[in-house]
């Protein structure tokens, strides 16, 4: 007899920069896996009643800051898990509110030691939203993300070299960057469409650590890397340790001069650029939301669908 597919209730979180990308990704993954899946945003007024009525085999909370106090009587009585996606930047806070959960999943291995029953669950991409497409790649270099001082330094250097095609985000201090700013913020779907028209997507990490007194260093790749490669762009990234271990082919830099030279060199050699891009895309291809949801189910002791239902 085929085992019953698990009933999973996902509690969503609307992120400031990436919006509902995790909401859509997990919903698509649940559909692909044929799960009985319901979900609601963390601040929805009837969240508590909806979870209790659905009676899930797993309560799976994204982020958790807003949802945890609203579900504090259900979490200890449920098979529950939280996926922390702001590690290590907010680890002092997350290590406090994640305590009631049976399992904790962290997006960066650097904070595994700060949580009980913790498992590394990196970010990923959604093949329903992120695919290469056939659009002409009219932009040589682009960047989508919020402003910080480090990002602005690299964007200014690329703009001065005449290489930067657009930025989305802000607010930027530099006139040369502001002139190329197409929008202050766009939806995840619009971001993916922009990536499909871009040859090289720049990746520079988040800068501010809001709750990280120990200064735990960030080591992991971010969603931008997975999503841009899945959309057929080449990512050129500021260096991080996980880039060497998970994605060694990805071009990385540690200074503005190195960034400009690297980008210019790749644009001047389109065949080499395509070889590098294809190698990186192939390495990241298995890293989907469905794969992440399988890991969650297995870690929580629930049946794991052998194949995608779709």
Structure in words:
The protein folds into 2 domains: 7-124 and 288-299, Rossmann fold (3-Layer(aba) Sandwich), CATH 3.40.50.2000; 139-284, Rossmann fold (3-Layer(aba) Sandwich), CATH 3.40.50.2000. Helices cover 35% and strands 17% of the residues. The protein contains 12 helices and 12 strands. The strands form 2 sheets. The chain has a 6-stranded parallel β-sheet, sandwiched between helices. β3 (58-62), α3 (67-70) and β4 form a beta-alpha-beta unit. α1 crosses α12 and α5 packs across α10 (256-268). It starts with 6 loop residues before the first strand and ends in an 11-residue tail after the last helix.
Strand order of the largest sheet: 2-1-3-4-5-6
Overall average pLDDT: 94
Shape: globular
- Structural class designation: alpha/beta
Question: CATH H level of the largest domain: which superfamily?
Answer: Glycogen Phosphorylase B
Which CATH architecture of the largest domain is right?
A: 3-Layer(aba) Sandwich
Number of domains: 2
The fraction of residues assigned to DSSP E strands is: 15-25%
Q: Span from first to last CA?
A: 21 Å
CATH topology of the largest domain: Rossmann fold
Number of strands: 12
Give the biggest sheet.
6 strands, parallel
Task: Please mark out the parts with pLDDT under 50 across 5 or more consecutive residues, or reply none.
Answer: none
Helix content: 25-40%
Multimeric status of the protein: single chain
């Amino acid at each position: 007899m085929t085992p019953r597919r698990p009933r999973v209730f996902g509690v969503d979180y609307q992120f400031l920069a990436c919006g509902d990308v995790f909401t859509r990704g997990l919903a698509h993954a649940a559909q692909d896996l044929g799960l009985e899946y319901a979900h609601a945003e963390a601040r929805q007024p009837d969240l508590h009643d909806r979870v209790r009525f659905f009676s899930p085999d797993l309560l799976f909370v994204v982020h958790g800051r807003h949802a945890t106090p609203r579900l504090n009587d259900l979490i200890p009585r449920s098979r529950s898990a939280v996926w922390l996606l702001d590690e290590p930047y907010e680890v002092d806070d997350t290590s406090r509110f994640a305590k009631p959960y049976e399992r904790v999943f962290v997006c960066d291995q650097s904070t595994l030691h700060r949580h009980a029953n913790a498992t590394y669950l990196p970010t990923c991409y959604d093949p329903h939203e992120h695919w290469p497409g056939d659009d002409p790649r009219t932009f040589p270099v682009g960047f989508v993300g919020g402003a910080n001082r480090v990002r602005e330094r690299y964007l200014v250097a690329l703009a001065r070299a005449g290489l930067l095609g657009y930025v989305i985000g802000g607010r930027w201090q530099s006139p040369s960057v502001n002139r190329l700013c197409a929008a202050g913020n766009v939806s995840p779907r619009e971001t993916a469409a922009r990536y499909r028209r871009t040859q090289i997507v720049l990746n520079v990490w988040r800068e501010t650590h809001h709750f990280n007194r120990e200064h735990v260093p960030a080591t992991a790749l971010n969603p931008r890397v997975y999503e841009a490669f899945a959309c057929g762009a080449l990512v050129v990234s500021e260096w991080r340790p996980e880039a060497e271990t998970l994605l060694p082919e990805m071009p990385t830099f540690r200074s503005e001069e190195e960034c400009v030279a690297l980008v210019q060199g790749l644009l001047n050699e389109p065949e080499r650029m395509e070889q590098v891009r294809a190698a990186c895309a192939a390495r990241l291809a298995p890293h989907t939301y469905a794969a992440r949801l399988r890991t969650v189910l297995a870690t929580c002791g629930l049946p794991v669908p052998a194949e995608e239902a779709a």
